[in-house]
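retry 2 of 3: previous attempt timed out while embedding zinc ion. Reduced batch size to 1 and resubmitted. Inputs unchanged:
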Amino acid sequence: MSSDEILRASQAMENLAKMVLERRNAATVDEKMRRLDDLINMILQINDCHAKVDREKLEQSLLRQSVETVEKNHQQYVLIPVMPVQRKAPARRRQSKLQCSFCQEVGHTRAHCEKRLHP
Ligand SMILES: [Zn+2]
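retry 2 succeeded.
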């Protein structure tokens, strides 16, 4: 092997090692994120917040190491981005059984009746 080939081989090895390391780190970061996500969502559920972790934003701020903190009553808190969770369907299901007193169709009320509003 020429010194040139050796150099190229060692560079390839180095790149491969780097790739493996990066991938392993990515897997653990992913796993940690998932657990963190679950944990925070659990806390949010305890308080019935109707919110869940905004994982994308959380990841971004963790990667940039720009996690914000606030102080309240001499206690330091970490701010975690969350987004609202849509409430579940029962309300809508109930509404779909409503009958319109204007056109007698099911699924809307007189107030929202298209036939009444736009005849
Ligand atoms: Zn109607």
